[in-house]
User: Which sequence fits this backbone?
């Protein structure tokens, strides 16, 4: 009985570690994607004077 319990606990811990690893990988990939899109929009901004400066 103890071996079955230990096996199920180990299995649950490995499953949780896999989920956390997947979430970490998804976070890194989405962060890089957001950073890349910020770089893309920085070049699309107009270079003229801002409305805040003109007032």
Assistant:
């Amino acid at each position: 009985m103890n071996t079955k319990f230990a096996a199920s606990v180990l299995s649950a811990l490995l499953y949780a570690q896999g989920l956390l690893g997947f979430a970490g990988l998804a976070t890194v990939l989405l962060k890089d994607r957001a950073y890349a899109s910020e770089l893309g929009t920085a070049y699309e901004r107009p270079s003229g004077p801002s409305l805040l400066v003109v007032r």
